[in-house]
Amino acid sequence: MIRRAFTLIELLVVIAIIAILAAILFPVFAQAKLAAKAAANLSNLKQLSLAVIQYSDDYDDAFPLAVQYVTQVEQEQVYLPTATTTLTTTPYPMITWEEGIYPYTKNRDIYTSPLASAPSGTGPVYQWLQEQYYGVVPEAADLAYQTNGSFLLNFPYINNGNGAYLNGPFGSSFDPLATGTDVYNVSSLTQTTIQNISDVIMISDAGAFDMNFLTTNTSPTGSATTAPCAPGSTPNSWGSTSMYVGPWPRKQQTGSFNGGQTCAFDPTVDGKVIYAATDGSAHTIDYKQVYTTASSAGQPVLYHMWVGSTQ
After folding, report:
1. Contact (Cβ atoms closer than 8 angstroms) between residue 146 and residue 135
2. For 172, which DSSP code?
3. CB 74 within 8 A of CB 95
4. pLDDT tens string 231-267
5. In 10 A of CB 241, how many CB atoms?
6. Three-state secondary-structure class, residue 272
7. Beta carbons within 8 Å of 265's beta carbon, 6+ residues apart
8. What is the distance between the alpha carbons of residues 236 and 240, in angstroms, rounded to a whole number?
9. Contact (CB, 8 A) for 171 and 132
10. What's the pTM value of the predicted model, to 2 decimals?
């Protein structure tokens, strides 16, 4: 039997078929990979929510504090427990809620989102940046405390100085560096005091552990059609220096959101927000469903973060 080599035409046909198959299959593989990452992200949030609930079971049903303001020495006991030197790159001395629930997770990998790039750095810097992928919603009293007679946060989610439309379950400890006479500790809410617990966001994709609500240096900007953006955030001295405030649509993003890292917000932005509710369930919701409008003032409200009876 006589064997012969492929002709050039046959070889080109084979290459063309392979190229066509690759063009068809590669996008499918990419979509499957993205779907797997989204599923892993949902699983992370589910595990975090269950850890928060386990924490609350041991602490009279109360959620952990969003942030504990501490001294630098106390902070170093968490981020540098065996070090003999001080932190050289230090965010505002604070301990995040992730550290509070760590005894119930025993796993820092679930603090990072598979839908985002991995954190950089080593040691305490890496540990800190791991905690900036998922954020919790602060209690309204945290946002409404006054400093020198004016509201520290003054943007559309605050009701013209009359109180916060935004209201979540997580409190905070006393800020030792704040000024004014109305700065105080705010206790976290309990699960039993929250109405519609399956609809209220506990934890969601975000660019800071507190969604940048509590730790802004200056008031975020925003309007009825443009969500706020913080010009600078103290904890981000270990990360970026500009941050979109609120939950992030990390899945199926459209528009010029740009991951929130440069405050490139556009009212036409859409996407999916993955979050865990205060009952421990995990959900995916359209980004625009997270927000609604207050009928009394025409201002945007984080509807799915509202724990009050007037929702």
Report:
1. no
2. B
3. yes
4. 555 444 445 556 677 788 887 777 666 666 666 655 5
5. 14
6. strand
7. 226, 227, 229, 244, 256, 257
8. 5
9. no
10. 0.79
